[in-house]
Amino acid sequence: EQVVKCLPPPGIANGEHSRPLSDTFAVGALVHYRCKHGFSLIGNKSVRCTAHGVWSHPLPRCEVGCVSPSWEWKSNQIGVPGDIITIECNTADVPKDLHKSQCQPGGTWGPPLLALLHCSKPADIAHGSLSGLAKAFFTPGTAVSYICEPGFSLIGTASIYCTQSGAWSRPPPVCQVVKCLHPPNITNGKLKGNISDTFSYGASVSYSCNPGYSLVGDALISCTASGTWSQPPPQCKEIRCVFPEVQGVKKGIKGNTYRSGTNITLECDDGYTLEGISQIQCQEDFSWDPPVPACKLRVAAAGVLLLLGAGIVWKIISKQKQG
After folding, report:
1. Which DSSP category does 150 fall into?
2. What is the value of pTM for the model shown?
3. Which of 152, 209, 214, 295 could be cross-linked to 268 through a Cys-Cys bond (beta carbons 3.0 to 4.6 Å apart)?
4. Residues 207, 186: contact at Cβ < 8 Å?
5. Which cysteine-cysteine pairs are annotated as disulfide bonds in the entry (predicted)?
6. Which residues of the chain are modeled with pLDDT < 70?
7. CA 159, 162, 167 angle in degrees (round to 5)?
8. pLDDT tens, position by position, 35-57
């Protein structure tokens, strides 16, 4: 009995079969076909050697297909004519009829797929960065935001979004170094060091007072990241020394408070002796130099006062006895 066999399977245009070259194939043998890139296989992918010694029909064919876009979930697959691709955009302003496209016999999509369906990674900026997720491309409607490093302020729009045209809505912003304006001047005082019209973030300036004035507040202020000074400037208040109440002391100048540098000559009332230096000066730390002297009651004067006091007491007692 003669064994039935099939001759090699026929080839197909723009495709090939998977079996190795052989002169004959046994009944039941399967051969798989595949198409070249850019073509779609129409029909059954496999044919079988039948008991009649012929291959099952019909053979598949390879027709020009439509390549799925790289950003679609079936990336690089081939669509056959008539296939419809549906694109979901995360923006409401894309017309609905542009969400679908059909594979045409010529291997193109109709209507053409939107070349605007994604934006490339937005540009980097000096002294700043993008906040959010890092991605290779962005779909229309996706927004990104820029932030600047400390000491830099953002010039332009912080947030931009991917438009339908595949471009970003605005150019990226610029991070500009923060500058503080000239610090305020103060009455009866001045700024120390190198002074300019503007100061960079982190720069500090200090104040000092004119002679005869004392600084109230912090002498040092700094330029902050917001372009303002860290605090209001200090004040310079006039130095006034207070003269204490001292028994028996007479001053050469009237008043109770005196400016820095003021000299006062002191003397004692009659019956008192000055203990210390007669001339004192008001200092910038609100003290007197030398210290305010004292006036001590003389011994003779003290005895007179004692006798006077005793006489007054004797008179009071005598009057009480007579009464």
Report:
1. T
2. 0.45
3. 295
4. yes
5. 6-49, 35-62, 119-162, 148-175, 180-223, 209-236, 268-295
6. 1, 20, 67, 69-78, 87-99, 112-117, 133-134, 136, 300-323
7. 115
8. 887 787 888 889 999 999 999 98
